[in-house]
Amino acid sequence: MDISTTLNPTPVDDSTLAEILADPGFGDHFTDHMFTVEWTPEKGWHDARITPYGPLTLDPATSVLHYGQEIFEGMKAYRHDDGSVHLFRPEKNAQRMNSSARRLALPEIPEADFIAACEEIVKVDERWVPGSEGEKSLYLRPFMMATEKFLGVRPSRHVTFMVIASPAGAYFKEGLKPVDLWLTEEYSRAGRGGTGAAKTGGNYAASLLAQQEAYDNGCAQVVFLDSVEGRYVEELGGMNLYFVYADGSIVTPATGTILEGITRDSIITIARGLGHEVTERRFEIDEWRKGIESGDIVEIFACGTAAVVSPVGSMKSAQGVTPAPASTELTMKIRSALVDVQFGRAEDTQGWLTKVL
Ligand code: PLP
Ligand code: COI
């Protein structure tokens, strides 16, 4: 893929950038450039370019605006203490983007081109990659959308893939305090044969009312159950879940209708490496309530790229409150093991890092 580059003539000035990087928040600030490549059935992927970051001009009939044919990814670039910059398992994001693409009837993008686009944005906007202090990073948001001007309902014949980037600090403003969760028993995120395993905007749109209910009940995230029986725990609005038992064994809900997280997958490897038995299986909401009551469940944590690893506190629902688990010890140990690899403080024994700079 040949990428043309047009540099931004008015990049953010150094002192404003320093202010932003001192406290980036999440998803509030965007770098000086963006990557774009387009697809048509006749030409395939073409016209790859880096241009100054800025608004898009879309015809009001552009199909993504009407039918939501869109997918996205989330990954981070980490700066190590020696100044080098690394992506964490970008090939996994590329593979998941393509599995989402297949489900949403969008064209696949070659894995190498996906990674090259992410690397190019990191290179051109290197000054936006924060230092490693405070575990800050540059969040990359690759996304693909239907950009044909057409109101019929069929897969789009014009598709646009872009990468934008945003410096990131903590996702939850409370920091590492356990997050309280709201269990929705009314709304589902995914159904059998649906798009739950794909990273597509519609899943997040479907989660927002329940997410608002979570906020209204003083909770930071919402827990979704399976849509058939309302009995099995699936995941949070934007994170996967883990349950730790007193005997050291660990359970995470099985896949199928959940988004298979790359953090989730990495933690299976890390926890097994620490000698823990990890099982992927269906997990009943009653096991959660009873496990806390009996003391068999000693820790619960949630994980994802944006929020890393976060201890879970209490779980609230219309039926009442299930108190927080007793401990966060293993959660913090697993969290450290993961971020130490990401920030180059521990050996990368699994070959998870791709050096960009
Ligand atoms: N589940 C959902 C619904 C998500 O949005 C995310 C975030 O990407 C995850 C799980 C965790 O996935 P990953 O670890 O790949 O970021
Ligand atoms: C991520 O962790 O990358 C996510 O996509 C979660 C949320 C910001 C949508």
TrEMBL record:
Pathway: Amino-acid biosynthesis; L-leucine biosynthesis; L-leucine from 3-methyl-2-oxobutanoate: step 4/4; Amino-acid biosynthesis; L-isoleucine biosynthesis; L-isoleucine from 2-oxobutanoate: step 4/4; Amino-acid biosynthesis; L-valine biosynthesis; L-valine from pyruvate: step 4/4. Its EC number is 2.6.1.42. Keywords: Amino-acid biosynthesis, Aminotransferase, Branched-chain amino acid biosynthesis, Pyridoxal phosphate, Transferase. It comes from the Bacteria. PROSITE patterns: AA_TRANSFER_CLASS_4. It is an enzyme of class 2 (transferase). Its cofactor is pyridoxal 5'-phosphate. Coiled coil: none annotated. One of its GO terms (molecular function) is branched-chain-amino-acid transaminase activity. It catalyses: L-valine + 2-oxoglutarate = 3-methyl-2-oxobutanoate + L-glutamate; L-leucine + 2-oxoglutarate = 4-methyl-2-oxopentanoate + L-glutamate; L-isoleucine + 2-oxoglutarate = (S)-3-methyl-2-oxopentanoate + L-glutamate. The keyword Amino-acid biosynthesis applies. It holds the Pfam family Aminotran_4. InterPro entries: Aminotrans_IV, Aminotrans_IV_CS, Aminotransferase-like, B_amino_transII, BCAT-like_C, BCAT-like_N, BCAT_family. Belongs to the class-IV pyridoxal-phosphate-dependent aminotransferase family. PANTHER family: BRANCHED-CHAIN-AMINO-ACID AMINOTRANSFERASE, SUBGROUP IIII AMINOTRANSFERASE. This is Branched-chain-amino-acid aminotransferase. The lineage of its organism: Bacteria, Bacillati, Actinomycetota, Actinomycetes, Propionibacteriales.
